[in-house]
Structure formats: structure tokens, C-alpha cells
Recover the amino acids of this structure.
């Protein structure tokens, strides 16, 4: 314990030091915020010129150098938007029911050993490098079927989404008061019915939060798609899923067009980035202000 | 809810049993998924494991022409970039966390707004940080930061080489930017879990704000903050796209922070499926296996630490 009775000089030094540290902390906050704000600002600034109706409804342009003009130099990201919708949609169909089921188990049977182990595994899986998930699906699906496909991409995204859905489901069901469960069961309603009609329906806002967050996360995932779905210049068809053809996605367009070095492709990449950021922010704000408010208990970590 | 319902009516218990089996199967599925992931990666890399053995980890040659694939240069790349990321990201992230949990001025609105902003930024996909890194950060590093570093610290071997911008240092900086939201969000929750009596006791002795933070709050939250840092390390190690844009993509062993390199993740994403050599594919899967094991260890440590601290609060990561 430091001295309690202090001489005047030591006291003033302590106050100066206190102020110094506060300034340093404030500085850290400001310095850290700058690049974070710049990222979003630059995406807006560079992406806006690319945005038009055509950008959302046309196929990508041919590569053009600076100054080159012509209709082949402008285009959109329709293939990516449709590919992303397809793969995220398929992944949602798989990940949501399984994730909710696992979350119900974590929340309603927390005392079992499987529940503890699985919940822990789920946490680990949620933080896992998504590229390893991509490689897993690559050796499992892409190598076996000998083709990149929307199916492989969707499988990888489903594994990314599953732990997020399971975690938010658990958190949102856990805060449903025990008294509600007891009241229901006191009326002679069996436990399984209680879980469906009382527990899940009370926590449904939280379940929706989890699903939205998982969709937002999957829509931005790039690395797993590079090794499972790759890219196609055309919108996906049924054949992209079965038997399987390479399929484009918005994040892959950002990666591929952004690193190619052609002026008009760079613009396309920034435009795609703006589309993606807008989508993510809208989903996250929806979660925060509409669902999150009623439901402060299960703030999900993304 | 633990009271088991030993109902006489069989339809009731059958319904319960069906539900429990179905959701229990999903829970077991989660465990099977992680286990399957590890097993499948190990199995598919057997060709590389048997060919290179331990030299896969310690050898520094990646030469497709001679069919030699060793991962040491990429381990170095991952460690160097994550190290820089932590070095820059931890003080900043911790600064934000302390500000968010201890600042009493400007009302709650300021803190919650800043907190939400930081959380939203954690949700921005990494490919966008990558694009921004390539077109904004790389020129900035090449023209301003790296020449400056060279003129001051150029005598150190880690700052030798030409400042070109696409190198390990820039990759480390982008990682720092990306893990700041993680570290600050988790640390803030850990700091918020420190009981107020802990602060009040110190204030009652006449301590200044900083003394309260330094001697009373931070020591109490030590293990949780450490967990947050390890979690940040986990994200840095696993980060793929942002690094791939700016790291330079060079399979040689890096000799300085200013030389272009590869991390484990960016090597996989750039090369998997791009070769016809089955040994190369197996080697890339083995790189993923390394990453899998690294991530497993990091996550276990982090989760253990944060759990111990915030077990009693609602917060879970």
C-alpha cells in the first residue's frame, strides 16, 4: 500500500501522473479510432462512384486500363450477389436448425457432461480460423467431387454460422426466467412442449439476433470460399450446386478484382466492398436497435 | 428445472426423450465437427507428414520445382506479423477498454456510443480491411513510415531491406487495427465485471483515478485481460484475407520485417488447389493442420482465462 499521508510535492506528482496517464489513454483511444474510421470512410469515398443500378444488375466488366472507355469497361457484380445469396441461403438452411437444437441442449440440459464439453467446443469453433474450415471442406467435398461448387461453399459457411447460432440461442434461452418454465410444467404441460411453446417463444428475439449475426458473418467470409467455391463470371444455376460448378461471391470479387491491378476492376472491388459493408451495417444496426434493445441479456460477440 | 419428471404417462416422457435425443445429437455433432476437422486434416496430409517428418516445421525450403515443401518461413511470418499486431494492438485496445469502463465524464451516452462503434468495426469483414490495406495503408507505409523507421533504426537487421510497403510490418499493422476491437470489447467486459467495492476501497484511501485503475482494477482483472490478449492473438494468427492483400506473398525465409513474406493462412489461400502436385496439396493441408493445432492451444488458454474471470457474469465469448 502506498503512503497515505503524503508530502505536498509527492501529492502534486501523483496528480500530474494521474493526468498524464489519462491523456495517454485518451490518446490511445483517438489513435485507435482513426484507422477504424478511415476504413469505413475510404470504402464510402471510393465505393460510391461505382454504385449504380447497373452495378447491382450487370455482370463484371472486362479488364480495362486507365483512360480506356467503352461499354465493356463498365459492369456490375450480379454474379457475386446471386452467388452470395445462394450460398449464404443454403448455409442458413443447414446451420440454423442444427445451431438452435444445440443451443437448446446447452441451455436446457446444462448439467450434463456432453453439454459442458460441447458448449466449450462450440466456443472454440466460433473463434477458429475460417481458412481451416475451408481446407476441411476442400479435402472433403472439392477433392471428392473434383469440382469447386456452391455446395462446398455453403457447407463451409454453414460451419462458420453454426457456433454463432448455437451460442446466441443458449444465451437467449438461459435468461428466460425459470419461473416461467415451472409455471408451464405445473399446469401439466410436458417439458418438450414447455420448451417449444414457452421457452423458445419467449427467447425468440434472441434467436433472431443470432441468425442475423450469423448471416452477417457468413456474408463477409472470404477465405473459406476461395478454397471451396472459387469464382465464375456468370450467375449461379442449379448446376452450380449439383453436380457443382465454381460460383462467384461478393467477397471473392473484392479479393480477386482488388488485387488484379486493372483500374476499372479496382473500382468494381471498392463498389463491391461498399455493398458488403452496407449489408453488414444494416444487419448489425437492425440487431442493435430493434431486437437488441428488448434483449440486452444475450449481446452476441461477433 | 433439474427435477426429472418421472411421469407415469408414457406419451409425455416419450416426447421429452425425443426432444432430448434430437437436440443432444446436435450438441454431439458440434463435438464431432471439431474432432472430424482435426482428423480429416491429419489424414489428408499423411503424404506430406511421412515425406518430410519434422523437417516440415524446421526446414526453410519451399521449392515446388524440387518437390520440397517446408513450412518454417510461414511459421516465422505468422509469428512476426501476430507479434507486431499484439505489440501495437494491445496498448490501444486496453486503452479503449479502460476508457470505456472507467471514464465517468461525458455521461453514459458517450461510452455506449463509442462501445457500439468499436463493436460494429469488429464486424467489418477482413477482406475489406485487406482492400483498404492494399490501397491506403501500403502506400502510406512505403512512403512515410518505413523510410522513417529505416533512417532512425536502419542499423537493426530487422529493419534492413527496401521499404516497398507489401511486407511483414504492414501485415502486422493491419492485424493490430483488426484486433483492437476484439481486445477492447473483451477487456471492457472483464473490467466491468470488477466489483465497485474494489474501486471504492482504493478511492477511500485518497487514491487518484489512475492509481485506482493501476493498483486496484487491473490486478483484479489480470487473468481476464490476459485472456483477451490471447484471444486477440488467436484472431491474428487465423486472420487470412487482410494479410494476404498486404504481406507480399513470397515463399523465401524472411530476413527482416521489411521483406515480403507469407503467413500460414495466406499461403494456403493463395496456393491450395493451384498446383497439380499431390505432395504440394498434402503439404498445404499439413500447414492447415499446424494452424488447427495452434488455434486449438491458443483458444483453450484464452477461454480458460476469460472464463475464470467472467464466469459469474452474463458475458461469454
Amino acid at each position: 500500500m502506498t503512503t497515505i499521508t503524503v508530502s505536498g510535492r509527492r501529492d502534486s506528482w501523483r496528480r500530474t501522473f494521474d493526468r498524464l496517464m489519462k491523456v495517454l489513454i485518451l490518446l490511445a483511444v483517438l489513435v485507435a479510432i482513426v484507422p477504424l474510421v478511415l476504413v469505413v470512410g475510404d470504402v464510402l469515398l471510393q465505393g460510391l462512384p461505382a454504385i449504380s443500378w447497373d452495378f447491382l444488375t450487370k455482370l463484371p466488366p472486362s479488364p480495362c486500363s486507365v483512360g480506356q472507355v467503352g461499354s465493356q469497361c463498365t459492369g456490375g457484380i450480379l454474379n457475386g450477389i446471386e452467388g452470395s445469396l445462394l450460398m449464404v441461403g443454403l448455409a442458413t438452411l443447414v446451420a440454423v436448425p442444427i445451431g438452435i437444437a444445440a443451443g437448446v441442449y446447452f441451455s436446457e440440459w446444462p448439467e450434463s457432461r456432453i453439454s459442458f464439453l460441447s458448449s466449450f467446443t462450440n466456443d472454440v469453433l466460433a473463434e477458429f480460423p475460417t481458412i481451416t474450415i475451408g481446407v476441411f471442406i476442400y479435402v472433403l467435398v472439392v477433392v471428392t467431387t473434383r469440382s469447386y461448387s456452391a455446395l462446398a461453399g455453403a457447407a463451409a459457411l454453414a460451419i462458420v454460422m453454426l457456433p454463432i447460432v448455437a451460442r446466441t440461442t443458449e444465451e437467449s434461452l438461459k435468461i428466460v426466467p425459470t419461473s416461467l418454465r415451472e409455471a408451464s410444467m405445473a399446469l401439466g404441460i410436458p417439458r418438450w412442449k414447455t420448451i417449444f411453446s414457452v421457452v423458445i417463444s419467449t427467447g425468440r428475439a434472441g434467436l433472431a439476433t443470432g441468425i442475423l449475426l450469423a448471416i452477417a458473418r457468413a456474408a463477409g467470409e472470404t477465405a473459406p470460399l476461395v478454397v471451396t467455391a472459387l469464382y465464375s463470371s456468370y450467375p449461379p444455376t442449379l448446376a452450380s450446386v449439383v453436380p457443382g460448378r465454381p460460383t462467384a461471391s461478393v467477397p471473392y470479387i473484392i479479393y480477386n478484382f482488388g488485387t488484379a491491378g486493372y483500374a476499372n476492376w479496382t473500382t468494381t472491388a471498392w463498389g463491391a466492398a461498399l455493398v458488403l459493408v452496407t449489408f453488414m451495417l444494416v444487419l448489425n444496426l437492425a440487431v442493435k436497435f430493434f431486437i437488441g434493445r428488448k434483449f440486452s441479456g444475450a449481446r452476441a460477440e461477433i | 428445472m433439474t427435477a426429472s419428471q418421472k411421469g407415469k404417462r408414457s406419451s409425455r416422457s416419450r416426447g421429452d426423450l425425443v426432444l432430448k435425443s434430437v437436440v443432444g445429437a446436435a450438441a454431439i455433432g458440434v463435438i464431432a465437427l471439431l474432432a472430424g476437422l482435426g482428423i480429416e486434416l491429419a489424414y489428408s496430409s499423411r503424404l506430406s507428414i511421412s515425406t518430410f517428418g519434422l523437417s516440415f516445421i524446421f526446414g526453410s525450403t519451399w521449392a515446388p520445382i524440387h518437390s520440397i515443401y517446408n513450412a518454417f518461413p510461414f511459421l516465422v511470418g505468422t509469428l512476426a506479423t501476430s507479434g507486431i499486431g499484439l505489440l501495437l494492438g494491445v496498448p490501444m485496445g486496453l486503452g479503449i477498454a479502460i476508457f470505456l469502463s472507467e471514464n465517468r465524464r461525458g455521461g453514459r451516452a458517450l461510452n455506449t456510443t463509442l462501445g457500439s462503434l468499436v463493436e460494429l468495426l469488429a464486424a467489418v469483414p477482413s477482406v475489406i480491411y485487406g482492400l483498404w490495406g492494399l490501397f491506403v495503408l501500403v502506400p502510406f507505409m512505403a512512403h512515410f513510415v518505413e523510410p522513417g523507421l529505416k533512417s532512425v533504426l536502419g542499423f537493426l537487421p530487422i529493419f534492413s531491406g527496401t521499404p516497398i510497403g507489401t511486407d511483414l510490418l504492414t501485415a502486422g499493422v493491419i492485424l493490430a487495427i483488426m484486433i483492437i476491437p476484439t481486445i477492447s470489447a473483451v477487456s471492457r467486459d472483464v473490467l466491468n465485471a470488477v466489483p465497485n467495492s474494489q474501486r471504492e476501497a482504493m478511492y477511500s484511501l485518497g487514491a487518484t483515478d489512475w492509481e485506482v485503475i493501476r493498483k486496484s482494477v487491473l490486478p483484479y482483472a489480470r487473468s481476464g485481460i490476459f485472456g483477451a490478449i490471447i484471444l486477440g492473438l488467436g484472431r491474428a494468427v487465423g486472420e487470412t484475407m487482410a494479410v494476404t492483400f498486404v504481406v507480399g506473398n513470397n515463399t523465401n525465409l524472411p530476413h527482416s520485417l521489411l521483406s515480403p513474406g507469407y503467413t500460414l493462412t495466406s499461403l494456403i489461400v493463395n496456393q491450395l488447389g493451384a498446383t497439380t502436385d499431390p505432395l504440394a496439396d498434402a503439404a498445404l493441408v499439413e500447414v492447415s493442420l499446424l494452424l488447427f493445432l495452434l488455434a486449438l492451444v491458443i483458444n483453450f488458454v484464452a477461454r480458460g482465462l476469460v472464463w475464470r474471470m467472467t464466469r459469474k457474469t452474463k458475458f461469454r465469448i
